[in-house]
Design goal:
single chain, alpha/beta, 3 helices, six-stranded mixed β-sheet
Amino acid sequence: MKISIPSMGKSGLEDQVGQHFGKVLNYIVYDTQTGETSILPNTSEHNGGVGLPPELMSRNAVNIMLCGGLGRKAVAMFDQYGIEVFVGAQGTIQDALNAWKEGKLEKANQDNACSSHDNHDHHDHHHH
């Protein structure tokens, strides 16, 4: 199973979780079977590329996305691709993985999505 976490760095498990998942520079992808991490550059249209992050995740066989929070449109898109999303991730990538393993992250849905993301407003607050 592949788990993706947004990151502004490219060091892997020591990087901080990027709090605006669509505009991060990279996604850290953790493979639960091998324990290996890889870097998936964010080539979506938010960063001048093509496509949207859920499409990028789908093309790279990601099963689960951990992030701080995201908008309702993104929740619907990830759902469309069959990718489970959990919100509330913070700290390092390793912290986010640990929180997910311990069941501390909440599964994303239309009720806990941040509506302001629908307008592409940038903000850094945490969602709880």
